[in-house]
Amino acid sequence: MIATPKRQLIALAVSLLLTMALVTPSTAQPPRPIPNLDALRLDEPVTIDQAPIKLSPSLVNVTGRHAVVIRLSENPTARIPQGAAQVAQLNRISQQQERVLARLRAIDPTLTELARLRVALNAVIVEVDGAALPALARDIEVVRINPVVDYERADQPPMETVPYIGATPEVQAAGYRGKDVRVAVLDSGIDYTHAAFGGPGTLEAYQAAYGTNPSDSRNKTLDGLFPTDRVKGGYDFVGEVWPNGPLMPDPDPIDCGVSGLSSGTCAGGHGTHVADIIGGQQGVAPEVDLFAVKVCSAVSSSCSGVAILQGLDWVADPNGDGITDDHMHIVNMSLGASYGQNYDDDSAIAVDNLQPLGILVVASAGNSSDRPYITGTPAGARTALSVAQTAVPSDSSYPITVLSTTVYGVAQPWAPIPSTAVSGILVYGASLGNALGCTAYPPGSLTGRILLVDRGTCAISIKGSNGAAAGAVAVIVANNVAGAVPPTFSFGGGSPTVPVLSITQTAGNALKARVNNSATVDFANPVSNAGSVVGTSSRGPTMGQMTYGNQIMYGQIIKPEIGAPGASISAVAGSGTGVEPFGGTSGAAPMVAGAAALLYNASNWSLSPWELKARLINTAETNIYNGPPVFVGPTLAPITRIGGGEVRINRAIAAQAGAWELSNGAATISFGLVEVTRNPTTLRRTIVVRNYGDTSLTYTITPTFRFANDAASGAITPGTSVTTITVPPRSRRTFTLTLRIDPTKLPAWVLNSGLNGGNGAALTAVEYDGYLVLDAPGTTNDLTMPWHVLPRAAGNVSAPASVRATTSSPAMARLTNTGANPVSVDPFTLIGSNNTVNASLGAGMQMPPMDLRYVGVRAFDGTGVCPANSPIIQFAVTTHQRITHSNYPVEIDLLFDTNRDGTPDYVGYTAEVGSFASDGRNAFFVGPVGGPYSAFFFTSHATNSTNTVVTLCGSQIGVTALGQQINVDAYTYDNYFTGFELSKIEGMSTVLGAPRFDIDIGSGVVPANGSLTTTVYRFNAPSDVTDSGILLQYSFAPAGREASAIIVR
């Protein structure tokens, strides 16, 4: 499962979600277009001094003990060529770390050293007194001090899934079984005594290695039982008590399995499942050398940030001699955090630093569903291979019929799935006063019946268990949120001895209307879900912008890049020989890691990490649906859900060629977000085709669209510099792919951070994607590359920097658009500005820059809309840097001093509706300082924009009527890594509905290659208001030109 990053958010309390009608502006204002607010209706600052600029804001003014990563100035050895140069660099790093630690201990004698990193990062990890941090940050050799960020694990038989992806007996019989490929599993450890890894497979063997409970000393020592022939090495960087106690590293990375304990309990087993899928006896690559790198807790689902960084360092230099010739070849990371910050996260940067050494990191994309930009880190790292989850071959949907209505359900694999139909009277749990099924039903109350309950509050396995205990023959769980595909769930306890199915909210409503009638679940006639993306699999593209402070793309890139079935039956830690279903992208990533090991083996260990990635992506199965066709119809999965397709290792091994982009080695062609201001606009990418074989290959090159309606629109015309290309043996050739964009044919931009913030369909509506197909004679050497672009019709508007107006003589202001598309103008009274722009501190610094630029305001009569007919108030916020999605990593806060006594009375802030990564929509929450907070309106933000508009009712901040003067302070906060302030504009004051300056913008649209003349008005206002002019926000424009401030003199 995917973790909530460490952040400090004000507690959410969504008490009111309204639907809004159009409103009328105050008669005191000049005529202007009334904003359409329909889509917005919802169904103390820390001072940082200059000295510790290298100190993460979350560590400023802190007290108590803190675990921190202190990065130092010498390059890590991963950036140094192998050999003597690495040894020399290791010496420099060791000397630097000794020097710095000595100085740090002089500052804080209580400092405790936790770890030293030398390969992936040059850093020391220490626990330190927070009061000493500013002094530590001033050290000349310290580059950055970040808090430790923790993650979480990303939560049929192998003989079903393994052949399905092409790891057939024929492939393995050819000698491709992963021999001599070193694969590290960064997870909860591996039960190396399990029969799946050649162990004895007995309880006695497990307890000899682990002991009888987590506190047993045997799980901290090797005892001559580890390493083994199959699990060749590793290390435990966590111990058995964290996070309930300190990290206690030891040399024994054995996984904790509850079935092997005589006393106590644990939450391990995850790593054993993963390792079995990769390289167990029935795994994808059964002869790989496995290495257990324990970075995740034995007693919770958390994974230690300290341990992950140590683990990434370990995989580059396992014997710690400073020379990386013993590095791992492949690393599996079935863990991460949603809405991944791939440029700012230091674990992602560490992953990128491993690739030049020859290490491919395979990671889970995440289990946060079909929501824009929600894919996680570290899978989002540029060099990682990000894996989506697809359905296993036996995964099926089952018809549920009541009267003449048939809906379909998804059976959960941890409960029985019979082969014949099950019938009974359909009963809704609410009729027994227990709609959720989280508590026991009266004994016998459901005998012979089919129970329908709602999702929520407890695990659905508990619901199934309670239904079975009362006599139900099947339990059906209706989703509590809208969605086309029923979700799947991991086992959460209980003893569900009857089938448990999940259905959509719509299907649940249909069944609720037909309760107390005979129902049949037809297990005898399942509909296969194979060849489809699982509903919970996370969607891209990645967060950030392609030009975000670096030359190599981090944002808006295609992730996930490949898919694999993720519900294999795999080994259970501590059970000796036991197996059980294991799913999610946690189970999909090891399928691909195993496939990469086979391909590396088949290439005689000659392929680089990016070539391994490319050849797996190039040969994947592209005909994958966006969910089971019984639910979504024959709808293909967008590229941002499946990347290159579903892995087919047999094709990758057979093909003697590969293709990737010249500039970055990626087999995915990411054009990113493009503001199209010219007609036409042409984009280009240079593609490399490499022939590894001994005979020439000739390819016919065809760019294709994923969806027919995109091709029919005529908005995008793909082309190539040549239509055929011949690549000689052992050679490479290049050609150019072009996309010609006609902005007049692009669809309206419906993707936003508010109402559609969690709506995958909104992203599908505005993105264009497809495959670049390279077709060779026959099929063996055919290659495909996914391409993706987010084109947005934009203008390029300029406005005068200032105008002169008096109360008796308005000013004229001409807005000029040099772009090929009309631009809508949204006007506000400018009340605050900030010209300070903070540059990014660099990759992996965990401090994304987000500086306020302008703040504007407008207010309207809220009669019939807001409580007590209070005014509708909108604040416009323009930042210097673009925000990809309003949810993360930036939160916009407004503090309101409505009685103007110098102390804020109310606060408003942007936040995701619901808990982290649970909903995707962003709203503006408002309430008294200290809460509770309510959201009446969604945040207005078009995604990938510097412009945000937040809406509230006056009643939320104690304003009963227009004409009231209030004071306002604005802030941006990092709500992903630290929770601390990034920028501010303070001391603003304005009279709501009676501004000093206003504007008549006529039609509100600046025509393409044309102009619009507007009228700027001055009105009498109190002397202490900060109204200084007009803020104009433009619908779509190039970065940096999305707003204008007209100062009125």
What topology emerges from the helices and strands here?
Blueprint: E1 65-72, H1 84-107, E2 112-117, E3 123-129, H2 133-137, E4 142-147, E5 151-153, H3 158-164, H4 169-173, E6 182-187, H5 203-210, E7 231-236, H6 270-279, E8 289-294, E9 302-303, H7 305-316, E10 330-333, E11 335-336, H8 346-354, E12 360-364, E13 385-390, E14 396-402, E15 405-411, E16 422-428, E17 450-454, H9 460-469, E18 474-478, E19 500-503, H10 505-512, E20 518-521, E21 527-528, E22 562-565, E23 568-571, E24 579-582, H11 585-602, H12 609-618, H13 629-632, H14 639-642, H15 649-654, E25 657-661, E26 669-676, E27 681-691, E28 697-705, H16 708-713, E29 716-720, E30 724-727, E31 732-741, H17 760-766, E32 768-775, E33 783-793, E34 797-798, E35 802-803, E36 811-817, E37 823-833, E38 852-860, E39 872-883, E40 890-897, E41 906-912, E42 922-928, E43 934-938, E44 945-953, E45 965-974, E46 981-991, E47 997-1000, E48 1005-1006, E49 1011-1018, E50 1029-1034, E51 1043-1048
Account of the 3D structure:
This protein folds into five domains: 57-149, 2-Layer Sandwich (Alpha-Beta Plaits); 150-393 and 529-648, 3-Layer(aba) Sandwich (Rossmann fold); 396-528, Glucose Oxidase, domain 1, CATH 3.50.30.30; 668-793, Immunoglobulin-like; 826-838 and 847-997 and 1022-1048. The protein has 17 helices and 51 strands. The strands form ten sheets. Strands 35, 37, 38, 39, 44, 48, 50 and 51 form an eight-stranded mixed β-sheet that branches. The chain has a seven-stranded parallel β-sheet with strand order 7-8-6-10-12-13-22, with helices on both faces. InterPro entries: Ig-like_fold (IPR013783), PA_dom_sf (IPR046450), PA_domain (IPR003137), Peptidase_S8/S53_dom (IPR000209), Peptidase_S8/S53_dom_sf (IPR036852), Peptidase_S8_Asp-AS (IPR023827), Peptidase_S8_Ser-AS (IPR023828), Peptidase_S8_subtilisin-like (IPR050131). The active site is at 187 (charge relay system), 270 (charge relay system), 586 (charge relay system).
